[in-house]
Amino acid sequence: MTCEPANSLESAKAEAAPPACPACESAAKKPLSGIYRFTCVQCCARLVLSAHPDKRQASAMLAAIARFRESPSRADVLECVRQHLTKPPSVLKKSESD
Ligand SMILES: [Zn+2]
User: How far is the CA of 95 from the centre of ligand 1 (A)?
Assistant: First the structure.
């Protein structure tokens, strides 16, 4: 007979959690809302992306994020940034020809 704690069932309630970040929500409606939460990896990525492609400014953003105590790790932020950058730029259409 196994005597495992059954509380894993309790927390297994499948709930599609929304982003739960008001800054991300408002940014989805208004991309230039300028609201960022340093605790949210999506917000941090947006912040870095707002500086993109200025590498110096982007790294200044990353440094600012890193200074925040509860911020996501730099690697997480960069991963999120990369995901954004690999998406087809539908809104941010930069000059593609140099
Ligand atoms: Zn957010």
Answer: 28
